[in-house]
Design the sequence.
């Protein structure tokens, strides 16, 4: 069993309140869950208006399956949310 995780450090420049930030974060989380069947959680920056950290975790039998899944997740976020700034940190165990 191989476990893969990706952490997104997100900066939302146009968020002017916690409510507007949470709308974006909720959208990202729900789309990732439904499209990729992964576990998603906001792990940092809950009280800040423009920043957040989201962790995504997946499990598979083979390392290449996990790598492919994580890359698809990163590509999806980058392509569907071009107006937010993202730093990506991947780890495979």
Sequence:
């Amino acid at each position: 069993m191989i476990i893969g995780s990706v952490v997104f450090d997100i900066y939302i420049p146009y968020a002017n309140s916690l409510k507007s930030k949470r709308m974006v974060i909720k959208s990202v989380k729900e789309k990732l869950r439904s499209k990729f069947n992964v576990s998603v959680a906001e792990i940092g920056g809950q009280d800040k208006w423009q920043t957040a950290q989201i962790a995504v975790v997946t499990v598979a039998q083979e390392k290449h399956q996990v790598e492919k899944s994580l890359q698809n997740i990163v590509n999806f976020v980058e392509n569907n949310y071009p107006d937010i700034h993202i730093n990506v940190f991947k780890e495979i165990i």
